[in-house]
Amino acid sequence: MPLLSADSITASYGDSRAVTDISLSLEQGELLAFVGANGAGKSTLLRVLAGAHRPGSGTVTFKDREVTALRDFQRNRLGISLVPEGRRLFASLTVRENLMVGAGSRRSGAWNVDSVVAALPMIEPLLARNASRLSGGQQQAVAIGRSLMSNPEVLLLDEVSLGLAPIIIDELYRCLDVVRASGLGIILVEQDLARTIAVADRILCMLEGHLVLEGTPAELTHDQITDAYFGHSIASFETEA
Q1: How far apart, in whole angstroms, are the C-alpha atoms of residue 6 and residue 8?
Q2: Contact in structure between 5 and 61 (CB atoms under 8 Å)
Q3: What pairs with residue 45 in β-bridges?
């Protein structure tokens, strides 16, 4: 049984179709990556999974329970947590206070302020600092920590590296290795193809709202992913028996 699955998801913004008939599944402990150019529908699909955007059709299932009708805060209480693009911290609160917001789900588990700081050590000297005084990389670390504080079983990460310096991105991904070791299922939206290929267990490539390529990094060539990413050609993929 998949940890999280979506069946025939279609989603729009008004008259503009963002996602068309996409199905997927996520297993326990798996890192599934969505790749595609800007406007491909990746973030919309992530928001649908989180309950932040209502699909026009299709269903979302978490641990064999259909959750399509549940709002984002309800799914968070069940164990699905979104780290949104733009981080969206509370600027007037300290880092510690922002982390505690994530504990509002009241789910029990291994993640608390101490374990979050251990996984994301760049946060430790910042706990008393106001969130408005953080760099972009520091904000991203706090946003990830806030989601972990809800003790999720599924972590949805939208554009982890967007606008950050390479050295900061490297540090964040080293921290994610620790997070992955805890057994979470992770869905990652990432623009950096090389980094995606290096960390993902499976890759879904989207183009103009459609799923055009799927496979593991070992099964897909860089050229296949690049072609699908930019729509130069629609590469086909068949799983070997």
Answers
A1: 7
A2: yes
A3: none
The pTM assigned to this predicted structure is 0.90
User: What distances in angstroms separate CA 196 from CA 35, 38, 193, 200, one per listed residue?
Assistant: 8, 16, 5, 6
Q: Where are the alpha helices (DSSP H) in 19-130?
A: 42-50, 72-78, 95-102, 113-119
Q: What are the residues whose beta carbons fall under 8 Å from the beta carbon of 151, sequence distance 6 or more?
A: 79, 105, 107, 108, 109, 110, 111
First to last CA, the chain: 20
Q: In which band, very low, low, confident or very high, does the pLDDT at 232 lie, cut at 50, 70 and 90?
A: low
Q: Are 126 and 142 in contact (CB under 8 A)?
A: yes
What is the distance, to the nearest Å, from the Cα of residue 121 to the centroid of all Cα atoms in its chain?
A: 21
Determine the distance from the C-alpha atom of residue 38 to the mean position of all C-alpha atoms in its chain, rounded to a whole number. Answer: 16
Q: What is the pLDDT of residues 138-149, one digit of tens each?
A: 999 999 999 999
CA–centroid distance for 134 within its chain: 22
- Written as six digits, the tokens of 36 are 């595609």
